[in-house]
Amino acid sequence: MLKINYYYKNNGSQKTIVFLHGWGLSGNSFGGIINNLPSVSILKIDLYGFGKSQMPKNYFDTYEYSYQIFLLLKKLFLL
């Protein structure tokens, strides 16, 4: 599995907002928003090939990106 960079802040809330950045950006795009959401848990992800996440060796399509996000959510017990 590739190395994926993420930030998870558990505020004890049963609700978690998952932030996914646009193409060519990173999870840092959400800094101002995250600081204004103190009552929910936060997960922001650098998609593969962006930010501090590892670059995939092969082409990633939207299915592969979504599957890798699914695996991370399972790993963090958010599913």
Walk me through the topology.
Layout: E1 5-9, E2 16-20, H1 31-34, E3 41-46, H2 62-75
Parallel strand pairs: 2-3
Antiparallel strand pairs: 1-3
Describe the model.
The chain has 79 residues and is of the alpha+beta class. Helices cover 23% and strands 20% of the residues.
Beta content comes to 15-25%
The total of beta strands comes to: 3
Mean pLDDT: 89
Q: Distance between the terminal alpha carbons, to the nearest Å?
A: 19 Å
Main sheet: strands, sense, barrel: 3 strands, mixed
The class by helix and strand makeup works out as alpha+beta
> H/E order of the elements?
EEHEH
- Number of helical runs? 2
Give the overall shape, derived from the CA principal axes. Answer: globular
- Uncertain ranges: none
Helical percent range? 10-25%
Side-by-side strand order of the widest sheet: 1-3-2
Query: Cα-atom Rg, whole angstroms?
Result: 13 Å
Summary, kept brief:
The protein has 2 helices and 3 strands; from the N terminus they run E-E-H-E-H. With about 80 residues, it is of the alpha+beta class.
Properties at a glance:
globular, 3-stranded mixed sheet, 2 helices, alpha+beta, 79 residues
